Amino acid sequence: MGQYIHYTQEEKERANRVNLEQLMLKQGEILLPAGREKRLGSNHSITIRKNYWYDHATETGGLAIDFVKMYYGKTFSEAMAFLLSEEGVIHVEAGDWEKETQRKEVLKIPAVSPNRRRLYGYLVKHRKIAPEIVNYFVQKNLLYESCERDKKTGKEYHNAIFVGKDPDGKVQHLHKKGLYSGEKNYKGNQRGSRPEYPFQYRGDGKKVYLFEAPVDLFSYLTLHPDGWKQNSYIALMGVSAKPMLQFLKDRPDVETIVFCLDHDTAGSMATKRLMTELETLEKPYTVEIERPIRKDWNDDLKALSVAEQEWEQDVALSM
């Protein structure tokens, strides 16, 4: 085992102030412009700005220490040593870093599209979500289609907006999913979103179901439509523990947590990590695990839809 090194709070702050843009250029990384940020040439889902980073695929982010741990697979001590060494001496000015940390960016709500044609086309036709599920969340003002215009090009962009609210009903989080075909379709959280209040539904029951993404949540409700409104459901927007912990703090009456993450290695590891987070809480919870048969709940739903269509065709041919 390596020798444990104690780092002071001042050293941690210095490490977290390392300018990731300049550091990655020094490491030979190609950076691509992405608005006010830079996108990594080696991984287009990751954007960086000064000492901040965000992975749009896993919807996780943070400061320099967590970036080095994630990107290079280093331990905390190794990341600290790397960032404080001569290879990581480029820092964001302390004043700038403090301003960035303390500033609360205003959450701007995108304009509503005059119609929901693309929204229903994407969720109902492409994702096979039950239209009554989509209707319900639209009526509850938790889902809508936006229409945004690029200031430079004038081009319109339409996104599905999944709205996250706090217990008082105030909008705290907006998740955007592009309504266009293609594997590289845009998805991300609106600037100013609070990660502890992502898209969710709160029922009066004592059970909460956790999913990685809103489409997984919708797919599960389509597959299990009976009595779903009595329970609560949260899209973690990845595998962060923040939404789960905040919900349990807001709802001390909840007794059971059902983990419904993806049926893959990453989903299994995330489930174990989140269960470990639960063990740190004073209150004991009943824990259940439900896994999709395929990789995720939408894969299960689409496979069921194909099977039903084939069955209907066989019945029609036999008549």
3D structure, described in words:
This protein is 37% helix and 21% strand. It has helices at 9-16, 20-26, 64-72, 76-84, 94-102, 117-126, 131-139, 214-223, 242-250, 265-279, 297-318, and strands spanning 31-34, 37-40, 46-49, 52-55, 60-62, 143-149, 156-165, 171-178, 187-189, 200-201, 207-211, 232-235, 256-259, 286-289. Helix 3 (64-72) packs across helix 4 (76-84). The longest helix has 22 residues, at 297-318.
What is shown here, in short?
With 319 residues, the chain is α+β, with helices and mostly antiparallel strands. 37% of the residues lie in helices and 21% in strands. The protein is built from 11 helices and 14 strands.
> Sheet with the most strands?
5 strands, antiparallel
Radius of gyration: 22 Å
Question: What class, by secondary structure content?
Answer: alpha+beta
Run of helices and strands: HHEEEEEHHHHHEEEEEEHEHEHEH
Strand content range: 15-25%
The CATH topology of the largest domain is Dna Topoisomerase Vi A Subunit, Chain: A, domain 2
Average pLDDT confidence is: 86
* Amount of helix: 25-40%
CATH architecture of the largest domain: 3-Layer(aba) Sandwich
Question: What is the molecular shape?
Answer: globular
Strand order of the largest sheet: 1-2-3-4-5
Q: Which spans have pLDDT < 50 for at least 5 consecutive residues? A: none
Q: What's the structural domain tally?
A: 2
Amino- and carboxy-terminal Cα gap: 72 Å
* Number of beta strands: 14
Q: How many helical elements?
A: 11
Q: What is the CATH domain class of the largest domain?
A: Alpha Beta
